[in-house]
Design brief:
Helix content is 7%, strand content 40%. With 435 residues, it is mainly β. It is found in: Postsynaptic cell membrane.
């Protein structure tokens, strides 16, 4: 008789040592023991170890593994450091000689499944749809995305706010449109009519039966950008706050998906969506935590929602001359900002040098600046869904001695008199700026 049995294995973690034990009983004479690794749903059996009783030899067919396994007993194979690729079924085949004829071999086999787990290798929290503008006239949906990679099996992902677990409504399918499923917690809007676009104020007083317009105002708070009449001091740094308030706790929506990766791991994505309230969500701490059977304690990644404050702007060259290329760059803020801000540049009272009304990006480049730009003021609006801030800088353009001039100007004055008037005007401008 011949019976074969293999002890079941608990899940193991990548890097652990695993022993595959093949137990058998027989009253016959041993011929061989062969271990197979089964792949492709059982269609392929890869021989990984053989014990030949006729010659009392054993050898490995796992050359690619550099003989990672050691024969502990004739019926046992040890894998010192398992990999994700080792995951799957294994079979032990035992052969004995038939009693009637030594030329016939009787075979029996057993199988076991090796479940290899891998802890997540990375976790990060991102904001969806960023950079995005800030609207103080209309409530905005906001989504945090937690991405967990390198785990097997898929981990359990959940969110916390200020250290407290968030009770969220499961969302099995992605929303078809934000307006169809978004929570509407706007029981009251405290509107400032002086800040409304003229087209809205002309429709009558809001809250008196007229529906609130759903279209966003022009990006960059165009209601405050009267390019003809506004006069802004250079030192102004203003911040915008919402003109509406929530009267109820936010309703959170949660969605969890995972996708297999070619290396056998799973990428998990969890999203948390709610109607953002900058008045209470600004400086709120959100964390994404992950539980996994291969982890002794949860992994976590956290972000703090913060509106931009105090942009730091640099201008190069610091002493611009006619014909230079001037670069105005936002280097950072007085605080850590999340999510990524949207930067919009405008020229106060006129269009930009290239004729456009505004420019998006952290850097504004002015190619070959003319003398006419001397004293012009540029505004940078930095905004994210939690708030907006404006800062201004003035461009001073000095005369370039390398650019030749004609013998006379249009009034017939000599070059020296014209240069004297230009230097005097620049000196008066600098004195006024300093005072």
């Amino acid at each position: 008789y011949l019976t074969v049995s293999i002890e079941p294995l608990p899940p193991v973690v990548v890097g652990d040592a695993v022993t595959l034990k093949c137990n058998f009983k027989t009253d016959g004479k041993m011929r061989e023991i062969v271990w197979y690794r089964v792949t492709d749903g059982g269609t392929i059996k890869q021989k990984i170890f053989t014990f030949d009783a006729m010659f009392s030899t054993n050898f490995s067919q796992m050359e690619n593994y550099r003989k990672r396994e050691d024969l502990v007993y004739q019926s046992t194979v040890r894998l010192p450091e398992v990999r994700i690729s080792d995951n799957g079924p294994y079979e032990c085949h035992v052969g004995i000689y038939d009693r009637a004829t030594r030329e016939k071999v009787v075979l029996a086999s057993g199988n076991v499944f090796l479940n290899v787990m891998a802890p997540p290798t990375s976790i990060s929290v991102l904001a969806a749809d960023t950079p995005a503008p800030f609207s103080r006239y209309q409530a905005q949906n906001f989504t945090l995305v937690c991405v967990v990679s390198g785990g097997k099996p898929a981990p359990l992902v959940y969110f916390k706010r200020d250290g407290e677990p968030i009770e969220a409504t499961p969302l099995p399918e992605p929303p078809a449109g934000a307006s169809s499923w978004a929570p509407r917690n706007l029981l009251h809007r405290d509107l400032d009519d002086t800040k409304l676009p003229k087209s809205l104020a002309a429709d009558g007083e809001l809250g008196m039966g007229n529906p609130f317009p759903t279209a966003d105002p022009p990006r960059g708070l165009a209601a405050e950008r009267d390019s003809v009449t506004e006069s802004i001091p250079e030192t102004v740094v203003s911040r915008e706050f919402p003109r509406w308030v929530h009267m109820a706790e936010p309703i959170y929506y949660f969605r969890h998906t995972h996708a297999p990766v070619s290396d056998g791991t799973v990428e998990a994505r969890a999203t948390l969506t709610w109607t953002l309230n900058p008045q209470i969500d600004n400086e709120a701490l959100f964390s994404c935590e992950v539980k996994h059977p291969a982890l002794s304690m949860p992994m976590q990644s956290e972000v703090t929602l913060v509106a931009p404050k105090g942009p730091k702007i640099t201008m190069t060259p610091t002493r611009a001359r006619v014909g230079d290329t001037v670069r105005i760059l936002v280097q950072g803020f007085q605080n850590e900002v999340f999510p990524e801000p949207l930067f919009t540049w405008t020229r106060v009272g006129s269009r930009l040098l290239d004729g456009s009304a505004e420019h998006d990006g952290k850097e504004l480049v002015l190619e070959r600046v003319p003398a006419e730009l001397n004293g012009s003021m540029y505004r940078c609006t930095a905004q994210n869904p939690l708030g907006s801030t404006d800062t201004h800088t003035r461009l001073i353009v000095f005369e370039n001695p390398n650019i030749p001039r004609g013998p006379e100007d249009s009034n017939g004055s000599l070059p020296g008199h014209r240069g004297f008037r230009f230097v005097l005007a620049l000196t008066l401008t600098v004195i006024l700026e300093l005072t």
